[in-house]
Structures are given as structure tokens and as C-alpha cells.
Design a protein that fits this description.
Order of helices and strands of chain A: HHHHHHHHHHHHHEEHHHHE
Helix content of chain A: 55-70%
Keywords (chains A, B): Cell membrane, Ion transport, Membrane, Transmembrane, Transmembrane helix, Transport
Number of helices of chain A: 17
Bound molecules: potassium ion
Structural class of chain A: mainly alpha
Shape of chain A: globular
Radius of gyration of chain A: 22 Å
Membrane topology (chains A, B): Multi-pass membrane protein
Oligomer: homodimer
Largest interface: A-B, 96 and 96 residues
GO molecular function (chains A, B): monoatomic cation transmembrane transporter activity
Number of strands of chain A: 3
Protein name (chains A, B): Ktr system potassium uptake protein B
Number of domains of chain A: 1
Organism (chains A, B): Sporosarcina pasteurii
Largest sheet of chain A: 2 strands, antiparallel
Chain lengths: 450, 450
């Protein structure tokens, strides 16, 4: 009872988020079960209906049912509403909490922070959500119109083409990864225009709202000299870019002699690049991923585990967590006491947070693998790992086992999607490591490690 | 060139260790290829001969050849010599480096350390090795004689029984896990006397020399009130005990309805307990482990990855690394700024070391899995993970794929056995985090994590 204010703040942040998500799941379930949502004659099991609602709110995209075969046009419109609730919801809340923390530090380190006071930081939660909604809707609408015009000839009416084009744009921007075609984007395997547009939308959704806001602010001002991109923007953008290139190169190398055999070089390059981008958190595919070798499966699992930027539509441990871990490792190996990057010093508490996030996330995945191996004895270990990291990274790629999961298995995957999306781990620790001052100190003693 | 003394010290510690091991491997290869070592008519490939030498020096026990079918009595005697080189070698060097670090801290924190100055800390390297050799030889000889008497009736001569009994004791104490019988200890599935003796020897080897030394010191003194067990001893013993119980309970639960079906309760208990103990780093088995379910395979892989105590005959990330990680996680979740355990405070640098060890080890296992999936396309992912963690934990349990590995695969496993044994990761970081003081400080800036 000694730090009630801290305790309340902490409790409230987690509470708001979890409460928002439970509410959003319930509301999504309601929307997706309205009369006229399902096509005539279609029956969906209760567990699968809940699963789809959780998957949609967490913009993961894993689903035991076929979207195109199940939903009417009205149903698809409802699904798009749910994707907005999921994508914009967490992007807003995530950014808001982040600004709260930043502001609190600002009180202590005001001098240093002055240089970083970008306009969007001053906004309240309402203005912030307004900005995010505006930005995302603009991106989705522009993307949707481009898609609509491009695919117009494939459909009988403009309305039908627009529904499909908009869904493609919404699914890509919110990184939901749902697709009206059961084969995801595989029909567009040779359509690089669609692929490039989709990849751009995926990156815009997954790079994190603060990055988009800073970039927009940068281009809207004449006095650019006084503007400094935040450390967060620099770290997450570099890490994001590195992961895209690294993933693409690795998939290219691993599959060139396997499933890519016989492809033209540009097909190999695009297939590798697209699935690397998609593994950030979109989950769309242009290729039958079950044909990938086991080595590629493990690689993509690792990429999905890392996930997207914080304050984005993506999940996983997040790019910054990986970046801090790598920076720590390099500094530690060099024997440096402080971690410097982009002329800034990383705070110790952030190193600790990255440690906690990686430990907990790793442990969670390990436990999930063991439990699913028990509940799904017929499914191979690497496919389960793929499904688990896909859920935690809210990615939604699958080796095709989602519909084969038992009810227990589906519940576990739902919980992982929830945790991956909320980033519960990180929010639990957002205020960690700073609340309790000890009243006494024991003497320090070294322990042999490793 | 600013910290030459530190740099030299650091370089030397790693150098001594790596140099010792390369020398030991070369010498072992020489010993295991002397005339009269192989049975007549036996041909062993060069790669398999090197593999066995590395496996023996690192007391891992993985081997692509059958020990009993390949070596003569003289060969088995040579193998025992190699196991001593491996087991006692690293135990001595590991303890010595640990004392070096402790002494250096002692200069700074002499007052606090006085209470902990146990006798063995004052010993030099020569006296230390003498103590360790004395202790290990005593344990092995007592164990060997007990085994010899017990199995006497199964052999024609006392000499033959003694060779077998001594080998069993040496293999258990050094946690080598080699066995003259191709089925390991499976013939003793119902012999609980052999199993209990073997488990005791395994634990004595894997608990860490400092623990044994402190216990002996404790019992050799009358003034026990002034003696305090070191934090290391307390942490490693508690963690070791917890892992034994946790592993046994989990194996029992996971296999009761699978491979243990139809067994009596005491058979289930002993089989579960024995393989939990063995996964610390011994690798001996009383049961066909390929019959375990995939869930148990992943569980045992995790246990082998953790490994044994530092300064012991075992490998892995070590018990203390796990303990510090768990303590950190609990403290962090509670928002405590310092980590207290057993009335002592854990140093921040040790938390950082545990982070570095876990990150690097995890990354190494991940990379090894991906590479082996490429080089061994026909072998299942979970069996490769099992083999990899078995090598890194110098455990030596296998799902039977060692002899099926390609040459590249064998080389990777050899490297992992080497790293697991030397604890290269930890030694690289032993002096890490303390050498370079920065000449300037950048302003600190927070980053969104996870
Ligand atoms: K997704
Ligand atoms: K072993």
C-alpha cells in the first residue's frame, strides 16, 4: 500500500487495454453473427466463430474457416469493421501509453527532451485517435481505389470490384492477412504490381504510428533543421529494414534449390521478398508455404516471433526488443558499460525490459509447443511451432493445420493471438523495475554464470 | 591499447581453456588410435574417430560407433583416461577461473568477502587440481568397487568385472554417458540398486566442485557456526534439485499414458527420475528414449539446454544462469530495483551475463537447427533439436540419429560439444561489461519495447 498512485496507474494501463480487447472481441463476435453475415446454408461451429472473432480483432488472420466461402458481402463489410477495431484500436492505445511514459520521463529530463518534442506528442488521446484513424483510413482508401481500378475488369460491377479491392487494402494495411480467396494472394503470383502495392501497405501498417507521424511532421515543416527523428523511429526503421532484407535473402538461399526450383530469378526474388515482408505480421502469401523446406519454416517462425514495430498493427516481441538485445550483446562482448546508438544512450531499464520480454515470450512459446504436442499428437512439431509463433506474432501464416486443431488447441492459439496483439508482456512491464525502492540492501555476492 | 592488462588477462583465460581443449582432443585422438585399441577387423572412419575423441574429451557421450563392439579392454582403459582428461580438466580450469574472478572482487569488497573465505579459495591452481583429482578419483573408485562387487557373478574373471564396474562408475561420475552396452543401462531397467548408485555418481559430478568442496569443508570442521555456504552453492543446489524434481514429474505425467503404459508405478517413477537426472548432463538411459512422445523430447531438450552446474563436468547454459534469469524475472515483475536471494544481493553484471549467455546460446541452437535441417533433409526437426541441445548440454542422449548425420552435420555437433563443454560463451563474457569506461555520455532516450 505504499505506492498507491504508481500501482493504480500501472493497473489502469493494463486494465484499459485488456478491457478494450475483451469488449472488442465480444462486439466482433456480435457483428460477425448478425443475420445476413453468413451465406445461406453455411454452418459455423461456436468455437470456430469465436476463433475468427479473436483472429480478426487481433488482426492475425489464422482461421479454421474459409472467408470467401462463408461470408456474404455484408459479412465481409462487417469483417472490415472488426479489422479497423483491431488495427486502429491497439495502434491508438499503444501509442497513447507510450506517450504517457515519455511524458513522465520528460518531467525528469526535460532539458534533454526538448529537442524531441514533436507535435504529435502534445496531442491528447482523442486527437491522437483522430490522427491515427485519419491516417489509416487515407492509406486504406487510396490503396483500395488503386486495387479497384486495377482489378476492375475481373468483376461484373464496380461495387463488387470495390469490395474486393478495399478488402485487399484493409487486409494489407491492418496486417490482418485475411483473404477472400482461399489461396490468399497466390492467384497474383506473377502480378508484381499487386505484390508491390500490398507490400507497401503492409509496411505502412507495421512500421509503427510514431514513425508515420514523425515522417509526416518532417515533410509538413519548412524548418527541417530543427527536427530530429526520435531514437525509437531510427531504431525501429533500421531493424525493420534489416529484417526484410535478411529474411528475403535467407528464404531465397534456402528455397532456391528446393521449392523455388524452376522459377525465373525475378519470381524467386519476389516470392522471397513478399514472404519476408509478410512474416513481419501480415501473413498474406503468394505461394503455397507448405512447400517450403523445414529450415525455411523455422526461419519464418523466428521472423514471426520477432514481429513488427511497437505501436503498430503487428505483434511479436517487436523490432525494438530485438534491436536492444542485439545492441546489448555487442556492447557486452566489447566490455562497454553503456550502450550507445545514434548518439543516444539506451537506458538500463529498457535493456531489462527487453530481457524480460524475450524470456517470457520464449518461455511461452516453449510451453505452448509442449502443450500442443500433447493435445495434437498427430501434428508435426515444426508445424505447431509455426502456428504458435504465427499467432504470437499476429501474423497468420499457417502450414495448413488451423482447422485440424482440437478445441484445446484452438483455445491456446486464441490466447496466444490475444497476448501477441495486446503485447501484454510488455504492458505488464511498462512500469516495471521502477516502483519499489528497497528499504535495505544485502551485501552483493558474485555467482558463477554459465 | 588502453587497457592492456585487462585485455591480456581476458585473452589468456579464454586462450588457456581453448588451448587445453585442442591439446586434449589431439592427445585423445592419439590415445584412441594406439595399436591394440580397436578390436581386430574393426574399421573406423576418420571423421567418426575424431567425433569420438571430441565426444570423449567433452564427456558428452554422443557417438556414431558402438563402444562395446569397437574397443578392446586396452581401448576401454584409454577411453577412461580420456574421460578423466575431459571431466577433471574443465572442472579444474572452470573452478580456477572462478576463483580468480572472486579474488579480484575480493580486493574491492574485502570486508564483505571475509565471511565467505573458505579454505579452498586460498589454494593455488596446483593444489586445486590435486584436490579435484583426489575427490573425483575417490568417488570413481568407491563407485567402481561397489559396481564390481555387485556385478561380479555376471563375469568370468574379477578383472573383467572390475573393468566393467569401473567404466560404469567413471562414465557416470564424469557424466560421460558412454556405455559398453549398446543399449546403455537398459539391461538394468529393473535394477534399482544400479540406478540409484548411478544417479548419485551423476549428481556428484554435475553439482559443481565448489559445492563438494564446501560440503567437505563443512563436515571437516568443528566450528560450523562460523561457516556460511556460498551464494553459488545455495543457488546451484536449489536449482539443481528443482530441475531434478520438475523433470521427473513432467516426464512421469507426459509418458504415463504413452510409452510408460503398462509399467508398474515404481517403474514409471524410476524411469522418469533417472532420465531427469541423466538430462542434467550424463546422457545414460535405462529406457529406449526414441519411444518418448514428441512433447517429452522437447522437454528433455530444454532440460539438456539448461545443463549442469558451472565448474562441474556438465555443460549447457548452467543452472546458475537459469536461476538468475528466473530471479530477475520475478524481481522485475514486482517492480523491484534489486534482486535479493538468500540474504544476498545479485550484482547487475551477473544479470547481464545471464542475459548474454541465454541470448547467445539460444541463437546458437536456432542457427544449428536451421543449418542441420539443410544438411540433413531427411531427419525430423525435433530429433535434430534433441541432438543439438544434447551436444550443447554435453549430455549425449540421442534419438538415434548420430550415425546418420552427414560429415557437415557431425562437424556442427562437434563444435557444439566443444562450446557446451568449454562454456566458451561464458568465458568470453567472464570479464565482460567491466573493461571499457566510456569517455563521454550521450543523453539517454527511452525506446518502446515489445
Ligand atoms: K496478420
Ligand atoms: K554426457
Amino acid at each position: 500500500m505504499k505506492y498507491p498512485r504508481e500501482a493504480i496507474k500501472r493497473f489502469t494501463a493494463v486494465q484499459i487495454l485488456v478491457f478494450y480487447y475483451f469488449l472488442a472481441i465480444a462486439f466482433s463476435f456480435f457483428l460477425l453473427n448478425l443475420p445476413g453475415v453468413y451465406k445461406p446454408g453455411i454452418e459455423v461451429k461456436f468455437i470456430d466463430s469465436v476463433f475468427t472473432a479473436v483472429s480478426a480483432v487481433s488482426v492475425t488472420g489464422l482461421t479454421p474457416i474459409s472467408i470467401g466461402d462463408t461470408y456474404t458481402s455484408f459479412g465481409i463489410a462487417m469483417l472490415m469493421v472488426v479489422l479497423q477495431l483491431g488495427g486502429i484500436g491497439v495502434m491508438s492505445l499503444g501509442t497513447f501509453f507510450w506517450l504517457m511514459i515519455k511524458k513522465r520521463i520528460g518531467l525528469r529530463e526535460r532539458q534533454l527532451m526538448m529537442a524531441d518534442h514533436n507535435q504529435y506528442e502534445l496531442a491528447g488521446i482523442v486527437q491522437l485517435i483522430r490522427q491515427i484513424v485519419q491516417l489509416i483510413f487515407t492509406i486504406e482508401l487510396v490503396g483500395g481505389l488503386i486495387f479497384t481500378v486495377y482489378i476492375l475488369n475481373d468483376f461484373e460491377t464496380f461495387g463488387e470490384a470495390f469490395l474486393n479491392g478495399l478488402f485487399m487494402a484493409v487486409s494489407a494495411t491492418t496486417n490482418a492477412g485475411f483473404s477472400l480467396d482461399n489461396a490468399s494472394l497466390q492467384p497474383y503470383f506473377n502480378d508484381y504490381f499487386i505484390q508491390i502495392c500490398t507490400m507497401i501497405l503492409i509496411v505502412l501498417g507495421a512500421i509503427g504510428f510514431p514513425v508515420l507521424a514523425e515522417v509526416r511532421y518532417y515533410f509538413s515543416r519548412n524548418k527541417r533543421k530543427n527536427f530530429r527523428f526520435s531514437l525509437f523511429t531510427k531504431i525501429t526503421t533500421v531493424t525493420f529494414g534489416f529484417l526484410l532484407v535478411f529474411g528475403a535473402v535467407m528464404i531465397f538461399i534456402l528455397e532456391s534449390m528446393n521449392s523455388f526450383k524452376g522459377m525465373a530469378w525475378h519470381e524467386k526474388v519476389f516470392t522471397a521478398l513478399f514472404h519476408s515482408v509478410s512474416s513481419r505480421s501480415a501473413g498474406l502469401t503468394t505461394f503455397d508455404v507448405t512447400q517450403f523446406s523445414n529450415a525455411t519454416d523455422i526461419l519464418i517462425s523466428s521472423l514471426m516471433f520477432i514481429g513488427a514495430s511497437p505501436s503498430s498493427v503487428g505483434g511479436g516481441i517487436r523490432t525494438t526488443t530485438l534491436a536492444i538485445a542485439v545492441l546489448f550483446l555487442i556492447s557486452f562482448a566489447r566490455g562497454q558499460e553503456v550502450i550507445h546508438v545514434f548518439h543516444r544512450q539506451i537506458k538500463i531499464v529498457d535493456v531489462f525490459r527487453s530481457y524480460a520480454v524475450i524470456l517470457l515470450a520464449g518461455l511461452m512459446v516453449l510451453i505452448a509447443v509442449v502443450v500442443l504436442l500433447v493435445t495434437e499428437p498427430t501434428l508435426p512439431a515444426h508445424a505447431l511451432l509455426f502456428e504458435i509463433t504465427s499467432a504470437f506474432g499476429t501474423c497468420g501464416m499457417s502450414l495448413g493445420i488451423t482447422s485440424e486443431l482440437s478445441i484445446t488447441g484452438k483455445i491456446i492459439i486464441m490466447v496466444l493471438m490475444f497476448i501477441g496483439r495486446v503485447g501484454l508482456i510488455s504492458f505488464l512491464f511498462t512500469l516495471g523495475g521502477r516502483t519499489q525502492k528497497p528499504h535495505y540492501h544485502y551485501p552483493k555476492e558474485r555467482v558463477i554464470i554459465g
